[in-house]
Amino acid sequence: MLTKWTGSAGGPIWIRPAWPENEVRAAFSFRKGGVSEAPFASLNVGFHVGDKPECVIENRRRCAAAVGGQLEDMVVPEQVHGTGVAVVTRDDRGRGSVPDTPPIPDVDGVITNVPGLTLMVMAADCVPLLFYDRAHRAIGAAHSGWRGTVGHIAREMLTRMQMTYETQPQDVEVWLGPSIRQCCYEVDDRVADPVRAGFGTAPLLTRFGKPGKYLLSLQTCIQADLRQAGVPESQIHDTGVCTACHPEALFSHRAEHGKTGRLLGVIRLPSPS
User: Fold this and answer.
1) Which family does the entry's similarity section mention (predicted)?
2) Structural domain contains residue 248
3) What does residue 180 show for φ and ψ, rounded to 5 degrees?
4) Contacts with 153 (C-beta within 8 Å, 6 or more apart), sequence order
5) What percent of the chain has pLDDT over 70?
6) What is the pTM of this model?
7) What is the mean pLDDT of the chain?
8) Among 17, 68, 153, 171, fewest CB within 10 Å belongs to which?
């Protein structure tokens, strides 16, 4: 797996997609290296979880700096567990970056080709997705929970990039960030039924001795969507890290019973020098 880990025991830890930094800068965060206190310790980037706003602002500032940007460059979707995707322009700079600036409403994905803007999505078990079209210098970030996954937000991201930037799937690389995995993600028929309808039985394992309970792989669904859309399998990268297995290092809504912070996926086209 072409994954670059950076950081130290006392500071932030990042998983960085293996893209040339002069072309695009991107990262997935862990919970280490911030200023928030328990239960949000310490690099929480979510304002909506009950953390102190000043701590979240400082944490976001550190995350922005990790990809060469500033807090004011960030653009954040509202994340409503849907499939909406917004095209981000210079006029959107800073939307959702601080509490008094609303995020892009009613969407879970954002795309842009504007250098200097930093696209950010949050997660604490859901799958953060980062997209890069090298041929057309366009990027995207999406939040894919189970509803967004069965709604095919991964394919919707590619469709919007194609409509807006003439992106071709064969030119796109996609990274799936730390998220809950099949080992820990138990669901019932309410979730399993739409998964089967959209993806068949491959993403689901029936739980022995627990009728109506299944272990779900969101990553299997997303990868199938991307391949069906035309993204070569060699250009789909899964970080392979389970949030629920490692709540000491990653925020997990399920493992921590809802009282936790948020990780991020962040991507930015560097500004021209």
Assistant:
1) Belongs to the purine nucleoside phosphorylase YfiH/LACC1 family.
2) yes
3) -65, 140
4) 82, 83, 85, 108, 109, 129, 142, 143, 144
5) 97
6) 0.96
7) 96
8) 68
CB 57 within 8 A of CB 94: no
pLDDT tens digit string along 110-168?
Answer: 999 999 999 999 999 999 999 999 999 999 999 999 999 999 999 999 999 999 999 99
Q: At what angle do helices 189-199 and 218-229 cross, to 10 degrees?
A: 20
Sign of CA dihedral 187, 191, 195, 196: positive
- Which structural domain, as residue segments, surrounds residue 158? 4-8+13-181+230-268
Number of other residues whose CB lies within 10 A of the CB of residue 24: 22
As a whole number, mean pLDDT of residues 251-267 equals 98
For the chain, what is the total number of helices (H) and then of strands (E)?
5, 15
Q: What is the CATH number of the domain that holds 264?
A: 3.60.140.10
Domain count, the chain: 1
**Which residues make Cβ contacts (< 8 Å) with residue 256, sequence separation at least 6?**
39, 247
Mode of pairing for the β-strands spanning 172-176 and 186-188: unpaired
| 252 three-state secondary structure | coil
**Neighbouring-strand partners of residue 5:** 15
Tokens of 234: 């060699």
The alpha helices in the chain, defined as continuous H runs, are 53-66, 146-150, 153-165, 189-199, 218-229
Instruction: Report the phi/psi class of residue 81: left, alpha or beta, with left for phi > 0 and alpha for psi in -120 to 50.
Output: left
Strands 25-29 and 13-17: antiparallel
